[in-house]
Specification:
Length: about 190
């Protein structure tokens, strides 16, 4: 969830991960291709409920397994190098390669990224981040829409996303986690 930043106190137009790490203004930021985005102050109750319900189901499945689940705020540098100019904070991520994790977050593409739409960030999630995650090699990207109670699942195949939509009933298979199925009625029970 992010919005374009009005103006940073720094005079530069493009930023790096090093710049990002130096900001101590008490705000949360994302960097996409060097452009800084201020995080929306507080998500809606519906957003938080959906995030919690998804987290609960994924956490229960992953207990005792090597893949790890993290919720925002959690830094994801899609390129592992220090000079990277992109760092995002998806609502939920699953990382199955422990070598991508350090004390600051994830370095490289997570296996699963979940973004829960807000009116102010929907186009960013549908356009900018979709292209970003596809390019970075995120194997599975979910866009959850609280208003329509749907989940759009984007699966990476030969470098391109293919999308399947799910309604608020039935189960949603987590393709990157063999045997994991999400009960959608429970996700949207807020």
């Amino acid at each position: 969830m992010s919005m374009p930043v009005e103006k940073l106190p720094v005079e530069k137009q493009r930023y790096t991960y090093a710049d990002y790490c130096s900001w101590d203004d008490g705000k949360r930021w994302e960097l996409i291709d060097g452009i800084a985005y201020a995080m929306v102050p507080a998500p809606t109750r519906a957003h938080q409920g959906i995030s919690g319900n998804l987290h609960s189901q994924l956490h229960g499945f992953l207990k005792g397994k090597p893949c790890k689940l993290y919720a925002a705020p959690f830094d994801v540098k899609l390129e592992a190098e220090d000079y990277d100019d992109t760092v995002v904070q998806p609502d939920l991520v699953v990382i199955c390669d422990p070598s991508k994790l350090d004390d600051k977050g994830c370095n490289g593409a997570p296996d699963l990224v979940v973004e829960i739409l807000s009116p102010s960030t929907a186009s960013n999630d549908w356009v900018t981040k979709l292209a970003l995650y596809q390019k970075a090699g995120v194997r599975e990207y979910w866009i959850v829409d609280p208003d329509s109670q749907t989940v759009s699942v984007h699966l990476l195949e030969d470098g391109r996303y293919f999308v399947t939509g799910y309604l608020n009933t039935g189960t949603l298979p987590v393709h990157v986690l063999e045997g994991c199925e999400i009960i959608l009625a429970d996700v949207f029970a807020i």
